[in-house]
UniProtKB/TrEMBL annotation:
<dbReference type="InterPro" id="IPR018108">
    <property type="entry name" value="MCP_transmembrane"/>
</dbReference>
<protein>
    <recommendedName>
        <fullName>Mitochondrial S-adenosylmethionine carrier protein</fullName>
    </recommendedName>
</protein>
<keyword id="KW-1133">Transmembrane helix</keyword>
<keyword id="KW-0812">Transmembrane</keyword>
<feature type="repeat" description="Solcar">
    <location>
        <begin position="84"/>
        <end position="172"/>
    </location>
</feature>
<comment type="similarity">
    <text>Belongs to the mitochondrial carrier (TC 2.A.29) family.</text>
</comment>
<dbReference type="GO" id="GO:0016020">
    <property type="term" value="C:membrane"/>
</dbReference>
<dbReference type="Pfam" id="PF00153">
    <property type="entry name" value="Mito_carr"/>
</dbReference>
<keyword id="KW-0677">Repeat</keyword>
<feature type="repeat" description="Solcar">
    <location>
        <begin position="1"/>
        <end position="75"/>
    </location>
</feature>
<comment type="function">
    <text>Mitochondrial S-adenosyl-L-methionine/S-adenosyl-L-homocysteine antiporter. Mediates the exchange of cytosolic S-adenosyl-L-methionine, the predominant methyl-group donor for macromolecule methylation processes, for mitochondrial S-adenosylhomocysteine(SAH), a by-product of methylation reactions.</text>
</comment>
<dbReference type="InterPro" id="IPR023395">
    <property type="entry name" value="MCP_dom_sf"/>
</dbReference>
<keyword id="KW-0813">Transport</keyword>
<keyword id="KW-0472">Membrane</keyword>
Amino acid sequence: MTTPPHQVACLIRVPSEVVKQRAQVSPSSSTFQVLSNTLYQEGIQGLYRGYKSTVLREIPFSLVQFPLWESLKDLWSWKQGHVVDSWQSATCGAFAGGFAAAVTTPLDVAKTRIMLAKAGSSNASGNVLSALHSVWRSQGLPGLFAGVVPRMTAISLGGFIFLGTYDKTRRLLL
């Protein structure tokens, strides 16, 4: 059985995300200090805290983004009577990415809480439902969607660049 691409990508993404987020909440510490402290206090497992929650976020994100991107391209193609250009595909990618980002923000919030939790705390256990419940109890719906606008903005830009570039490259190669 092969390993799904999301799991492989997360092997690299999660440690860098853990260090980045911890550095953001500890501005007096350098990136190297955050990395060293994490390894010293928690071992290699500390760098992979949030791995499962990241994979659990990535799967629904992709299940929303890619079919929506394809559907938007099909709709635009149908409306104009010919296949979309690469810039139009990129625009569809931006909308699809932004929408997928919005609907998966609660999972991103849970992942962040898990990654930033103090070792030994309930959130550090990595239970996504428990983290979501904790946010819901303390902050309600606004807490579950904390950071939704910057997340949508960044992922929309990424969707525009990456999916537009993918489409252009695919056309050049075919």
